[in-house]
Design a protein that fits this description.
Length: 431
């Protein structure tokens, strides 16, 4: 069965269909969107066209060029990454259907600095630059590769729909998960790294935290001066020349929440990776009365569900009436009342949800369950109270008991009267 699947996947791949059977590293190719800005009547418009990224692979450059020619008839722009180049797929090795790819032109903003990497030759004509950004659809990683096209008579500003561009991947900036969730007081590592195609590059690394329009510097390092500025967090300066610029945060608080921006600058190229750090704290749930409750029919009791210590604020609380053994959906109790949100000292929140229960015999053996859902929970928290209901005494029984009690009192009074009358009668005898 596995062999059949492998044959089918191989056939699909050679037919031009990018199947989930292969990762980017295995296939060496990926469909992308090539986005260009165009000015029309003073307005910026974005033109989007199909593009094919052919990465460096064990195949020879001639073999990859032959593959590129096969796709020219499909109306796609082909970016043929030639050797020597950095291995982009090493940082984005995932099934291609889980990835999204976007390519753009890159402007050096007038900075003309000959690239010192492989093939870099001093010239008065600047290089043509493109960026290729590959992101995981579930935010597992993000990779931005800079593709260099050396100046030549063939490199025109206008790119046709079926053109093939021979480029080199010379600079790659990558990050791990772009959304990181952590609990309070935990240590967190935010992954950020880079690769350059030449040794001892002139590199500047910077970390900033952005929150609600505020943007503050946490760390900066420039290889040219060898100086590092540490304000918050920890970055190993010794690891930066090896391409590791990850940031470590110790004992995070609510003030640590926000968007962390890792930027890497190798003149004339600049790239940044955004990593969102979210603080999440799971709620603690308790119910009152505790796990069991016994009431007499017709009696009333307040059932309280207390939820505390959660973050962020949004929380969903329901009271359910559940009959053990039944497969039907539980009945959601209506007319639930809530207290106002409590703001704890550590920044977490709390709330209580309660209702007044009037016991009936139909409630005997029923579970009243407090169900709590929150961002921090994969499965809702459930806390239950098992209710036992005792039948109330019947009215006839109460009436008979009352009459019997009255008769007892009357009999006692009569006996006492007769006893006194007998004593009086004995006192009147002369003998």
């Amino acid at each position: 069965m596995f062999c059949n699947v492998a044959v089918i996947c191989f056939w699909l791949l050679n037919a031009g269909s990018f199947s989930a059977c292969f990762t980017l590293k295995q296939s060496g190719r990926m469909m992308c969107s090539f986005v260009e800005e165009q000015s029309h009547l003073g307005e910026i418009q974005y033109l989007q066209r199909n593009a094919l990224l052919l990465l460096n692979s064990p195949d020879t450059e001639e073999e990859r060029a032959a593959r590129a020619r096969e796709f020219q008839h499909s109306g796609v722009i082909t970016f043929l990454v030639k050797d020597p180049s950095l291995h982009v797929a090493r940082h984005a090795d995932e099934d291609t259907d889980k990835l999204q790819c976007e390519m753009k032109r890159y402007s050096t903003a007038g900075i003309h600095a000959p690239w010192p990497g492989a093939g870099g030759v001093g010239s008065d004509t600047p290089d043509n630059w493109f960026t290729c950004t590959i992101k995981h659809r579930e935010n597992q990683f993000s990779v931005t590769a800079f593709l260099r096209q050396p100046p030549s008579p063939e490199s025109e500003l206008r790119i046709g729909d079926t053109d093939t561009l021979r480029v080199s991947a010379v600079f790659v900036v990558h990050s791990g998960p772009t959304v990181v969730e952590t609990a309070l007081r935990r240590d967190v590592r935010l992954d950020c790294g880079f690769s350059v195609d030449h040794a001892r590059p002139d590199v500047t690394v910077e970390w900033r935290l952005q929150l609600r329009g505020d943007r503050r510097k946490l760390f900066s390092y420039a290889s040219r001066s060898g100086q590092a500025e540490r304000l918050e967090g920890e970055v190993s300066v010794a690891e930066i020349p090896r391409g590791n610029a990850s940031l470590r945060l110790a004992g995070v608080t609510l003030k640590s929440e926000g968007t962390y921006v890792c930027s890497v600058y190798v003149p004339p190229l600049y790239s940044s990776q955004d990593i969102q750090l979210d603080i999440v704290e799971s709620p603690r749930v308790s119910v009152s009365p505790s796990s069991s409750l016994t009431l007499q029919e017709g009696a009333e009791e307040k059932l309280v569900c207390d939820i505390d210590g959660y973050y962020p604020l949004d929380v969903q609380v329901e009271w359910l009436r559940e009959v053990p053994g039944e497969r039907r959906l539980p009945h959601v109790v209506k007319h639930i009342l809530f207290t106002s949100h409590r703001h704890n000292m550590d920044g977490t929140y709390g709330i209580s949800a309660f209702f007044l229960l009037r016991a009936s015999l139909q409630d005997h053996g029923v579970d009243y369950t407090c169900r709590v859902s929150h961002k921090s929970l994969r499965v809702s928290i459930r806390k239950s109270v098992r209710l036992a209901v005792e039948a109330a005494p019947q009215i006839g029984t109460i009436l008979l008991g009352f009459l019997f009690f009255v008769l007892l009192i009357m009999l006692a009074v009569l006996l006492k009267y007769l006893h006194k009358a007998r004593e009086t009668s004995n006192k009147k005898k002369p003998y």
